[in-house]
Automatic annotation (TrEMBL):
Gene name as annotated: deoC
Residues the record marks as active site: 113, 177, 206
Catalytic reaction list: 2-deoxy-D-ribose 5-phosphate = D-glyceraldehyde 3-phosphate + acetaldehyde
Family of the protein in this entry: Belongs to the DeoC/FbaB aldolase family. DeoC type 1 subfamily.
UniProt protein name: Deoxyribose-phosphate aldolase
UniProt enzyme class: lyase
Pathway: Carbohydrate degradation; 2-deoxy-D-ribose 1-phosphate degradation; D-glyceraldehyde 3-phosphate and acetaldehyde from 2-deoxy-alpha-D-ribose 1-phosphate: step 2/2
Location relative to the cell: Cytoplasm
GO biological process: 2-deoxyribose 1-phosphate catabolic process; carbohydrate catabolic process; deoxyribonucleotide catabolic process
Keywords: Cytoplasm, Lyase, Schiff base
UniProt-listed HAMAP family: DeoC_type1
Gene Ontology molecular function: deoxyribose-phosphate aldolase activity
Length: 260
């Protein structure tokens, strides 16, 4: 059973997770190669798509304006095209998020990373937050796209993180995700454990923000994470290949730092 199996995401716990026990494919399929930085040019996005294809990762996560470009570049490739909705603050009106989701799917996106309405979650407006996610999930399901709900944990209390996870599951989301990568802190092991416990086994966990070494990726996998958003894709996968080849640590700064 592959570690990153969508049919059984909880299977990650059944296998010892080390570079020695994992295949290249299992590690590469953990990664959504992140191409979200606002300054990225179309040429840099295309180079990122080529890199994603060369390393055979799960997907690219591009800015909404780059979905068509990425979909064209990756046509016929196993690398999926994902994008973001209500990014990075989650504050767009629900109708705007729905429109963004529809347009992205029309243009070729099959994975949608939407940002939860952070302020409404913090304000205790659970019904609003649920409706916001449900509206995006509904159009995504019609178009066959996955939905990952970004909680942006940097701004939330433990209770709010758990509630965000529960509302995401209730709304039918496929994943809950720690962070955008653009807040004061990113993924932490503590948050990943909390999120894994807060949702049912069929809801997957994505870590993003600060997963920049192979050790960090292995650490998040060990607590049940089945996808990471990363910009350091090449470094992580080169390190994996080097370690497999010679048992030598090629690069890296150790494991996951506490949210950066
Ligand atoms: O996917 C989210 C972030 O863009 C990841 O950025 P990072 O890997 O450089 O922390």
């Amino acid at each position: 059973m592959p570690v990153n199996s969508h049919s059984d995401p909880a299977s990650a716990g059944t296998q010892e997770i080390t570079a020695e026990t994992l295949s290249y494919e299992q590690v590469a399929q953990m990664i959504d190669h992140s191409l979200l930085r606002p300054e990225l040019t179309p040429a840099e996005v295309l180079a990122g798509c080529e890199l994603a294809e060369r390393y055979r990762v799960a997907s690219v996560c591009v800015k909404p304006c780059d979905v068509e470009l990425a979909a064209k570049a990756l046509r016929g490739s196993s690398v999926k095209v994902g994008t973001v909705v209500g990014f990075p603050h989650g504050s767009s009106a629900t109708a705007t998020k729905v429109f963004e989701a529809k347009l992205a799917m029309e243009q070729g996106a099959v994975e949608l990373d939407m940002v939860i309405n952070i302020g409404r979650l913090r304000g205790g407006e659970a019904e609003y937050v649920l409706g916001d996610i449900q509206a995006v999930v509904e159009v995504a399901k019609r178009g066959g796209a996955l939905v990952k709900v970004i909680l942006e944990n940097a701004y939330l209390s433990e209770e709010q993180k758990v509630l965000g996870c529960q509302l995401s599951e209730q709304a039918g989301a496929d994943f809950v995700k720690t962070s955008t990568g653009f807040a004061p802190s990113g993924a932490t092991l503590e948050d990943l454990k909390l999120m894994r416990e807060a949702v049912s086994p069929h809801v997957q966990i994505k870590a993003a923000g600060g997963v920049r070494t192979l050790d960090a990726l292995l650490e998040v996998m060990r607590v049940g994470t089945t996808r990471v958003g990363a910009t350091a894709t090449a470094a992580i996968l080169e390190e994996f290949k080097a370690r497999k080849a010679g048992g030598v640590r090629a690069t890296g700064e150790g494991g996951l730092k506490s949210g950066y």
